[in-house]
Queue: 4 jobs
Job 1
Amino acid sequence: MTRSKTSTESRLIARCNFDGISINMTRHNQLVKALRKNFGFESFKGNQEAIIENLMDGNDTFVLMPTGGGKSMCYQLPSLLMEGTAIVISPLIALMKNQVDAMRNYSDEDGVAHFINSSLSRPEINAVKEDILAGKTKLLYVAPESLTKDDNVDFLKQVKISFYAVDEAHCISEWGHDFRPEYRRIHPIVQRIGKAPIIALTATATPKVQHDIQKNLHIQKAKVFKSSFNRPNLFYEVREKTADVDKDLIRFIRQMEGKSGIVYCLSRKTVEELAQTLAVNHITALPYHAGMDSQQRSENQDAFLMEKVQVIVATIAFGMGIDKPDVRFVVHYDIPKSLEGYYQETGRAGRDGGEGHCLCFYSPRDIERLRKFQQGKPVAEQEIGNQLLFETMSYAESTLCRRKLLLHYFGEEYEEDNCGMCDNCRKHYKQVEAKELLALIIEVVGQLKEKFKAEHIVDILKGNETADVLAYKHNELENFGAAADEDEATLHAIIRRAMIAGFLKKDIESYGDLKLTPEGKKFLRKPTSFKVPVESTDDDDAEIEPQGIMGSGAADDVLFSILKDLRRKLSKKLDVPPFVIFQDPSLEAMATSYPITFEELQNIPGVGAGKAKRYGDDFIKVIKDYVEENEIIRPEDMRVRTVAKKSSTKISIIQAIDRQVDLDDLALSKGMDMDELLQEIEAIVYSGTKLNIDYFIKQIMEPDKEEEIYEYFQNAETDNIHKAMEELDEDDISEIDVRLVRIKFQSELGN
């Protein structure tokens, strides 16, 4: 076995690196321990740990993370670990209450989290301030309007602020889907209260919105953490909005029996009427909009959270702010005003990783109605609004993969040709050659000096004598009417496809004028094949059934159902939403491993010490009775416990690897050869313990060799070493190389 670096030099480098890594490992271990203790999770999701470390180092931070990705953890955990009180600026009173309730359920101290907003009386606000001054409160949620009040500013000047968290940060930008003018006043108020790191978080932001947020908050140098906007568990579907739309909606909801859902409408009137229509058709539903009495609105929301009703019908403009992880469907009865709004609202489905069906009813008349709403507004605002509407219309009418279109809108490329989780990818399309039409489009864009939008280009090619075409005398162009026989939708589809392919781009600063890219100019000089999908006429019109990840992930569906009933009864008794007690994934884990002691319960994902103490008795009793009545042999009962000497050997190996001791040195110290040591490590990893041996692999193996072996195991049907050696058939790959990478593979993907 050879090393890429030899003898003293490599060991010195490794030791220098080890000193830095050991510090990071210490912090990592501390953060994981705090995560487990306070929230009951064994590991961080995605970028959470890196975000938390950056914030705790005192740096401004910008987080782009889709709904369900765990944004709130990025400020909740550091608030508990840092000195002082974190200020969380949130636009929705309902969301504040939910998050405060959730934080209190994770802690023994109710004062750990508070909110200040217009719903509190003066005595209640004074009680909150007493807890803050006493050092009990680690998280304080405030609405931007409350933050700007002089008495609150004067009070907060007395408080040690650990950091400011700006939640729903897209509200800052006029290009965002939910612009709130008061959000643009956050920076000067923060300056008055006192300087501290800022973390801005949003579940949806195009590059333009991201720039606006950073500029307004004066955090242009913030480290940006951008998670993928892809929500693989969500199914996207657009249906034509017909005269029978109510019948279609009722049929859809009945297919979702027993599952919670949200239906969004454009107007308050529609919300009220549709809620009544659902109710008379034996679907439990309540309305929710800004024009309702605040108490009634709150009661309706609580009924939905407590699962007393199946459906909440709401206005898009107001926004729900419902922190409910098990919403199984989101319906847009009317087309939304922007793709950002659509993405944000559909993101409320399947936040726990379970199924989520996103259905949108679309009619061109809805777009026209929304365009009329723009009239009378300032010209710049109309331009922005109309451009956002055009993007939404393009999405609804497109035959392309809806996931690909959505991710492209947010600056992310989706490489798969077929996502399998949208209506377009489930339909049958034929590919039609569009090389000549694309060349025409690119030519016209160039002739117009890249100063006009897609609609104008299509009008010229179709020969439409619109007011703008005539005003600019574009009816005199050589290409005027050159594609008169083509359908407008086809021309728009080619433009959208060309943008995704990188031949055209939109200039946001000029409200969407089409620009040529170098690739587009190259295409015009030498056109190549360019195909677009067109729906096949022989495709049947069969209605797509509700899609998603159906069923629970529990091994015992009967126990899972019993635990859900227990959770519902407790939620009613304690007057808290069911998911605040335990979320579905935690119940699924209980119905798989059957914990019957507090120690076992605390090992369930999402069950920390605080939750086990608050709710554990009831769940342990139910599970224990169920196990005894059904004579179930639990996984824990089958676990073979090794004698102390053997356990101590394994523990010492785990500890040595945590300290990043070279494996050959470790084998020598244990009196083993490398084969014997690897057998021990394999036994540890295959029993479910995660080990990180990257530090050793990097010393002895070139990256491309490691990648080749790792890729083999990703696609292999078996992890047999001899089979792997035959398949790889490389002279420079040893059996030890393959075993080491297999350990890494099993540890990362199997544990």
Note: The radius of gyration is 29 Å.
Job 2
Amino acid sequence: MAENKPNYSANNIQALEGLEAVRKRPGMYIGTTDSKGLHHLVWEVVDNSIDEHLAGHCTQIDVIIHENNSITVKDDGRGIPVGMHEKLQKSALEVVMTVLHAGGKFDKDTYKVSGGLHGVGVSCVNALSTYLKAEVHREGKYYTQEYSEGKPTSQVVEQGSSEIHGTYITFQPDEKIFDTLVYRYETLAARLRELSYLNKGLKLTLTDEREKVDGAFKSEDFYSEGGLKEFVKFLDETRTPLIEEPIYVVGKEENVEVEVALQYNTSYSENIYSFVNNINTREGGTHVSGFKRAVNREFTKYGNDNGLFSKLKFSISGEDFREGLTAIVSVKVPEPQFKGQTKGELGNSEVTGIVSRAVGEALKNYLEENPKKAKVIVDKVILAATARHAARKAREMVQRKNVLTGTGLPGKLSDCSSKDPVLSEIFLVEGDSAGGTAKQGRDRNFQAILPLRGKILNVEKALEHKIYENEEIKNMFTALGVSIEEKEGERSLNTEKLRYHKIVIMCDADVDGSHISTLILTFFFRYMRPLIEQGYVYIAQPPLYQVRKGKNFVYCWNDEERQSAIDQYTGGREDVNIKVQRYKGLGEMNADQLWETTMNPEERKLRQVTIEDFLEADRVFSMLMGDEVPPRRAFIEANAKYANIDI
């Protein structure tokens, strides 16, 4: 039987020339075309300037957000070469701007270490911009070339003489590619601050021409003399340190440079951040393995040699040495091998031993030379081990109870009929009253309801075994079907039996509701982070207002929508009777209203919880929910103008 099938021949094979592939599949090159991808463009350009600094030729980098959300990145490096490329017979500047994986960083005589080696580079930024201008100040002259969508729209033009040196890149991202073109000042500032700590002696500035402060454009300088030591202090400013000054490690072996700073604090969380050639390796890698190995080895040896662990009736685990530890592990590797395009994990096996030896030698000397400080740290380790032992018993009690009672699901849970996690969702609802309304309004086929009584335990300030004794937290663990497991001294969240792929936090739209949401998010960030990282956690958005005229009404989620609705109903007349209801609690809506505004997948507005900047998220959670009051007060005072609090 003849079938009408499309022809498949050589003519069907597309050979994308130049940067066409980048425009056709941008996600393959920058990961995403949302806000994260938009900001990634800036990092690609800044990385080139950082490479000039690492090579010893750049002392300042300026980033400017223009009023139309275009970006300029300036550096005072050597300037991109503009001479003729022998093989391609075009200017080296044009080659760098239009050819993927072209640049001096592939020549190890030019750049010994490069952060952007496996990145897509400025050519990708060019491809995804409607306009890009390169300005080069080099060898006493000034050159320019302009591009659109990755293609040159002019030749390289010598504009005249110049007494400065460096490269200026200005680009306008393509609105046809990106979901948004609006740059977040805070996102750019956080990364530039991070880079200043990782590259001591380098000055970075950020200027926002969209906003003025005291008559001048909003601007901020980032500069660090102390490098990683100052970085650790910055991260720990919301915690109480056990020792005043961070332990600092620097070493070099086989052309691999190691720089580490670590400090213990009174918190219960472990915070190890790692970088390779300034790239944040979120999943760690061999450099982190080497660091952990050294910490475990040296503290174990010191404790055993001095009889400090003799009274313990159980063994010390590796994680006990890292509770309350904030550390930055930074290495410069000439030929880094990353696992995956995202560069999330370093794979160079030789780096493990190099870092382990450097950190081990420094820790050994520190412990021997500072016995009083060493005793304080070891006491913290013993306390951590004791708490972990108690927490394990508490976890086992919860899990054993689940096994003995069948499903182990909490009695307050109103489960859904579906057993498919992909189709199922659970609402964590503030209070029994709102929980009852949600149960009546839900679609029981795929929506489960778990009411939470009041404010859950603040896990930022609680010993771990206390967490598993908290009824509301136990209910969340058992309802979700996840568990914390220990293997070879490391704990991880087992999500294989996760029962819902949408976990929706649904709280009142008032101050107490915001506080409860923050408490729940703190718990997820500290103990169920994989659920956030895998995109399972959401925050419901109940409406703030209902604007009614007679039998007609509309729901509004902010003040602008409310005013627009009022204007639409009144037509500017003052004699029209309009009723505006402000919803402060979920209980003020009946079941039908809650369904149609907040729970109905066809109409609702959900905000997915993501971790854009892990370091900043950790610092903010610690600041808002930790013991230190001054940083929290300063944060509230700085951000109070953005709050809309009902009296």
Note: DSSP finds 19 helices and 26 strands in the chain.
Job 3
Amino acid sequence: MNEHHTTPLELLAPAGNADIGIVAVDHGADAVYIGAPRFSARANAASSMDGIRRLIDHAHLFNARVYMALNTLLNDTEIKDALAIIREAHDAGIDGLIFQDMGLLELDLPPVPLIASTQTHNATAEKVKFLEDLGVSRVILARELSLNEIRDIRRKTTVELESFVHGALCVSYSGQCYMSQAAFGRSGNRGVCAQPCRLPSTLLDGKGKKVIADRHLLSLKDLNLVDHLGDLAEAGITSFKIEGRYKDAAYVKNVTAAYRKALDRIIDSGDLYRRQSSGRVAFTFEPDLDRTFNRGYTRYFLTSPDMPGHQAAMDSPKSMGAAIGTVLQTGKDSFRLSGGPVHNGDGLCFVGSNGTLKGFRADRVENGRIFPNDMTGISTGLRLFRNRDHEFLKQLDRKTADRRIAVTMVFHQTVSDIRLTVTDEDGHSVTACQPVVFEESRNPEKMKAQIHAQLSSTGTTCFHMTDLKIETPSPGFLSLGLLNGLRREALTELTRQRKETHVPKEPGKAADPAPVCPEITLDYRANVLNRFARAFYKKHGAEDVADAFETGPARPGDVLMTTRYCIRRELGACLKQRDSRLKLTPPLTLVQGKRSYGLRFDCDLCRMHVVVE
């Protein structure tokens, strides 16, 4: 295969901190993204610069990349600190900066590749082309896009395209949600979203009648596109992103391993693609996406909208897990289950009679009977799900992956020294030399076997020997310590060379003349919170630029959320489908506690708007 004519595919994993980022790399990630010390869209997943440096040091050994997320809106007093963080991160060796605030593009940034966050609302070819012409190196696409929409963007642009493939879904177009700010004074665009979309809601029709009460009507299932990676690659995606900077190491291990295997099957099946980073991973467990946190899965709008009733997790915003069986028989303090197996410590759950999720723990399992910590609500015929797999988590708590870079070795002995040349799969080559006076061996063949055994034993290093040539037909006597020292010297030098010769990506180049904004009149959804962002849009042709939503109180009629997900369609009440099973009298209102929101429907575009009443 000629690698110059293949497309590199990147598996991009989350790093809630440096340790989890290292776990992701060890389990096959080609790149990881980690929060900046401040100004990350996941404020509680900020990382220290020392941690980022440690992660970079490990990742670059495998030619993997580290992207830093500094993707919140900034006010005027924060710009200086943000710039200082970016410069320090560039000096540390980050491979890209994920950003949202356009004001950053007006600053004297170091030459780091820029990655437009999905928070910049990248849903059209026109927007992506504008970002490309600004000099952005990569665009993270909106999660709502279909394959045909992605193909259209690819035809009209050349910038790198990144797509989410797994994890939690924001119900609103990212960067365009103001519900948390309006309800709680906590801005999602500032990294402190209160997640009102995960709260229970009641839907009222135009007559004030309750259509559905106390359900999680805006809470979506998790995205799972593991079976569509080939489709995405064909459409033009080269970076496949796993969501989850709030997830623990066990989750990152399992999901990264599952997607590594899936992506490798695509790469190994033909000559179109290649791996973005170096090394192969051997896993000690079989990844299973159903056995770690999930709210149920959806492919969202990728190929066609999921069927009504299949996009939202209305019973609970918590993990439901996979169906495990049905209750066959109940007793005073235990029950029997069809299916399983269930283990001590498993977390099980079911949907109660009121439509809410109720969980319990399997304290003890004996002779097919399950003794839970709480029998309330458990009855014959009840369908159970497992949302905490104790045995699987025990597996993931151990060492579960070994990532190794292939090397070949050539050994040579002269009358005065021994030499070992080691060449890795990327072409890096080092030679270690030790002065040794030749001393004839009593058994040269046995000595050759000993040389082979000692030099090929790469131990706990990141290398795996695939071929060793001993060029000396009759080597002299050499001690085990001498051979081990020669191998250690060579591999230590190769490790140093790999880290020091990591080639950073060149930043993108801005078009000349400067591009013009796709829209020249910008309301609060342009997210302008500082004077630099205002100057940016003015420079690029905007004539009327409103202040960000965060600068003032919500007003009646303000759109708090725009979503492709539609409550009408999910409930089977779509106005475009004549056979809709449910008829709703407009206008519809969504109630959360003492707060109420209007629902407006643009059926021509299949969009729903949540507005201030």
Note: The chain has a mean pLDDT of 95.
Job 4
Amino acid sequence: MNVEIEAPLSEYLEKYFGYKTFKGDQEAIINNVLAGKDSFVIMPTGGGKSMCYQLPALISPGTAIIISPLIALMKNQVDAIRNYGSAVGIAHFLNSSLNKAEIAKVKEDVTAGHTKLLYVAPESLTKAENVQFLKDINISFVAIDEAHCISEWGHDFRPEYRRLRPIIEEIGKVPIIALTATATEKVQQDIQKNLNMTDAMLFKSSFNRPNLYYEVRAKNVDVIKDIIRYIKKHPGKSGIIYCLSRKKVEEIAQTLQVNGIRALPYHAGLEAPVRAKTQDNFLMEDIEVIVATIAFGMGIDKPDVRYVIHHDIPKSLEGYYQETGRGGRDGGEGNCVAFYHYDDIVKLEKFMKGKPISEQEIGKQLLLETVSYAESSVCRRKQLLHYFGEEYKEDNCGNCDNCNNPREKFEGQEAVELVLQTVLAVKEKFKAKHIVHVMTGHVNTAIKSYKHDQLELFGDGSDEDEKYWNAVIRQSLINRFLIKDIESYGLLRVSDEGKKFLKKPYSIMLTKDHDYDGDGEDSDDDIVAGGQKGGGGDETLYKMLKDLVLKEAKRAKLPPYVIFQETSLEEMSINYPITIDELSKIAGVGIGKATKFGKEFIEMIAKYVEENEIERPMDMVVKSVVNKSGLKVYIIQNIDRKLSLLSIAKSKQLSFSELLDEIERIVSSGTKVDISYYIRENIDEEKQREVLEYFKESESDSIGDALRELGEDDYTEEEVRLMRIKFISDFGN
């Protein structure tokens, strides 16, 4: 195919779409397609990818086949094209949502030459009758949208995408344009190799979206209250909330609804007509918020999504980038807020068990990158762009939480030197975790078997903890002193730049990572709700409450978090509860804890409110979904009957982890439950004793911290969670 056009491309652009000028590389890409050459396009969301195949399809003879993974995306784009053209048949889709009569109409329009764009699902393309049909028509070119689905290293791998090339070759020799919004170097190579288009012209736009504001917040026990508060501060604006599970999507959508927010759930478990109606409601602004699993939004062309909230941290940075890319596509405001706690990462790792080893390794590597992004105090934009192989040279982007609230820097010359020397000492054959263990003098099986405990520099970094050294390694990667070998699942190598640094070291300023995981020494400086210390509340009151908790903890000989967690104190400093009833409504308190520990707290708050003439904001009492109380009563009654926890979970169609979530909510609100009978049957006495001793002495109730301290190989997450429930119930309630 080599299409001769009668007028400049810009005239066709204005004729069909009403635009006078192209964006970025659009014109060069379209010319390449019209010349009959293969094209590989990496262009961020909002950059105008769809134009790169829509315009050449409209001005080329024949029908362009657009392979797309989502039915919602197809409908959205077909409707848009039909609005530009005069005939309905100008664009069609062919997928499982059509009945026989509708399929016949599509094929009739295509055969008659009316259809310029035919959107096809990859599953539909594999059907013999569809392959035969496509063989008999004039195809201008094939566009493969969301091409990252081809790669196992991509964030949305789909096996059927890897079978596309032989099918396309069976249909006939036609040019291919592959498009994606996210592709690391590894994913890019995988796509080109699988599609046999290594000679394709590569068009790679900058991944930088300057209008997007990136922020990571600590994920508190009652994160839903933070989300509701955020939405109510942005009235009338459209937003998307992403969750990893369908159950959580339904739960959050219901809670938003009962709190007066126009929201609907969206996930693959809903009927197709329901999903389509929800999508239309969102586009037409009949609802303001969609709560969705990661399947939503891959092609939703709504330009004015003003915030994208991640209730759960995604499995990969590609997924995060793709999903945040839904915000501010018109170049206007786009706020991207992710709630993060390391416990979520532990859960995601557990989901991988049972998968092939290679798939587990890839998944863990992608998760590590996500942890690095979330915990890093480096410019979020710089970190994201580095991940996609792009260098961001500004020191301060001015549009992320880390740049707007910079953390204190420290001289990192010696630390970087030690990291690089350690990587070289172990022959550049190990991942970051092993390097950190060598530097901190942590002895384990791997260290012993490779005799790395005998290295001269073993333990030279033991005066700092693992979090510190992880921060140094991450910033060494961003500064290009280190290279992460993705092919080998993340082995670290020293770059040429790193070798130059070792020969002639110079001053380099680094920052410590955030600690979103508990009561760390620097948690007061974390960027949390509102971008202020203490969750955006009254800092003076927050400090007074914290002092009172420490005093009460000392008196009761308990860790402070058993009395009230920091998140509860933060909420007290925002809502100023002055009665036991009001205090019981604070997240993580409940009537039990309010009655047991609350008297001195409400007296202090009442006195503070009166002395400072404070007007109390009593409008932020979040209403709960009604059926929760029924579940709570059911769980408590059956624990009292000493019914197996597994049986309780099964009877309510909950996973064991979800049941523990519910029990944790019950005990953190001050209700006493006795699960000793279940613990005795499932955890040996020595383990019980060790975990209880740990929680008695620990300043944090973090499961992640506990597993790392007790030994991830010796204890399961369930064992530690069960013992934490027993500890808090026995000593705090």
Note: Residues 518-535 have pLDDT under 50 and may be disordered.
